[in-house]
Amino acid sequence: MSTTTGTLDPATRRVPPLGGLNRTVLGIELRRMLRNRRTVIFTLVLPAALMLSFGGQSGWDDKVGVGNVGAYILASMAMYGAALTAAAGGSMVALERSLGWSRQLRLTPLHPVAYILMKAFVALVMGALAIVAVNLVGILQGKAEMPTSTWIQCGALALVCTLTFAALGVFIGYVVPGENAMQILGPGLALLSFLGGLFIPLSQYAEGVRLVAYWTPMYGVAEVVRAPLTHELPWYAVVNAVGWCTLFVAGAAWRMSKDTARV
C-alpha cells in the first residue's frame, strides 16, 4: 500500500503570469503606502508647504522662457516633491526587511523583477499625487504663468523622472537597515537639490560649485523637467539623467539579487 505526502516538488510549481504581478498585489501595496501617515505627509503636505514657503517673493513675474519665475519654481518644487515621495516609497523595503515581509515574499512565486515593477508603479502613483498637490497650490497662488501645454509637459516629465529616485530609494533600502533609510535620503535629497540647481539656479553659484553640480543626480532631471518652460536642455544634462537612472536601477537590482539569494 503506497502513501503520498503533501510535499510539492518546486520544479513542478507553475510560475504565475507576469511573475506574480497583478492588481491584487498592487492594490495591497498602494493601501499600505496610503495608510502610512508619514508617507501621506511626504506626499501631500511637505511638497505643498514648500511651494507655499516660496510664495509672495519679489521677482516671481520675471520672464523665464515661455513663462515666469513662478512657473520655474513650480516645476522645480514638483520635481522635488515627486523625488522625495518616490525615494520614501522605495526605501520602505528597509522597513519591510526588518519586519520580515521581504522574507515572506521570497517564499512566494513573486519574481524579483515583478517586485521591482510593483515598487516602480507605486512610486509613480505617489509621485503623481505629490506633483498634483504642488500644482494645485501653484494654481491657487496664481503666481505661476506658462502655457497649459507646457504645464502638462513639465508635470509629465517630473513623473517620469521619479523612477530615478524610486530606484535610489530601493537601493538605499537594501543597504541601510530599518527606518534609517529615510534619515539618510531626506537630508541627502535636500542637499542634492540645492547643489543640483533645483532650489537655486546654478548661475548664482561659483564656477567650482557648478562643475561639481553637473555631476550630481538632481542636475539632469531638473534640467529635463524645466526644459518645456526654458526651451534649454544641454546634451550633458540628458546624459546625466539617463546615467544616474541606469546606475540606481542597476544598484537596486544588484542589492535585491543579493537579498533574494538568501531564504
TrEMBL record:
One of its GO terms (cellular component) is ATP-binding cassette (ABC) transporter complex. One of its GO terms (biological process) is response to antibiotic. GO terms for molecular function: ABC-type transporter activity. Signal peptide: none annotated. It comes from the Bacteria. PANTHER family: NODULATION PROTEIN J (PTHR43229:SF2). This is ABC transporter permease. It comes from Nocardioides simplex (Arthrobacter simplex).
